[in-house]
């Protein structure tokens, strides 16, 4: 029975992506915004989580120098967040069928010199990012922009049919997946071959996997993995983010993060906090382009 459900889910996903892909590209932005209005109606619980997360983060964000949304309410920010998620979904649907050239060709690169300086070290490269903007596009566009693919660390989909579909899409763009279970060995091997690795460093982890840090004024568990991987491999860590400006995308490469070399528990915690600040700064500057529906503060004594 489960296999039948999985098959139906995968077929529905394929049909959805196909319909979106054959529509004229000029409709993608508006159709995505409409999809973003529908999504909260389908998953109202996620909308409630987003609004609560934003409400609790607003006092911190409004005191931050990068805040630029004035007196916007949590409801207003959540509404635009879902619109952006809808737009990203439509773009990924086009990419799935190889029709996202217009999306990729409109990407603007900022801070490219930071990427080139880090890449020239010949030790592989770790892109530190989060569920920011169209994070899938960030990975998939790399082979077109720089003529080399990126491996991303991700969780395997429960639906094996859907998982294979996503893998095929990534292969089309010379992008690969290193699955989280047993990922350390695969990541270190890829970096030893001087490859590119993308790590989403903004999710809650189990206490035994992380350290307790501050995220927008609230306690949260952060993974130790990026710090440990960087120290073991010697590969540069480049905070990199993608955000939407109207109908175009912007990828920003920040300067390489410099580690202290302190691998004590306290040293790792300090570095994990520093890496989290990059994501935090992005969220404050672009509050409707982060995945607020994730329970970032769970297991840390917080309600969501």
Give a written overview of the molecule.
The chain has a 7-stranded mixed beta sheet, with helices on both faces. Strands 6-7 form a two-stranded antiparallel ribbon. It has 12 helices and 9 strands. The chain starts with a helix and ends in a 19-residue tail after the last helix. α2 crosses α4. With 304 residues, it is of the alpha/beta class. It has one domain. Helices cover 51% and strands 16% of the residues.
How do the strands of the widest beta sheet line up side by side?
Answer: 1-9-8-2-5-3-4
Order of helices and strands: HHHHHEHEHHEHEHEEEHEEH
Rg, Å, rounded: 19 Å
**How would you state the average pLDDT, rounded?**
91
Strand content: 15-25%
Shape designation: globular
- What share of the residues lie within helices? 40-55%
- Tell me about the biggest sheet? 7 strands, mixed
Low-pLDDT stretches are none
Q: Tell me how many strands there are.
A: 9
Structural class: alpha/beta
Number of helices: 12
Distance between the termini: 33 Å
Indicate how many domains the architecture comprises: 1
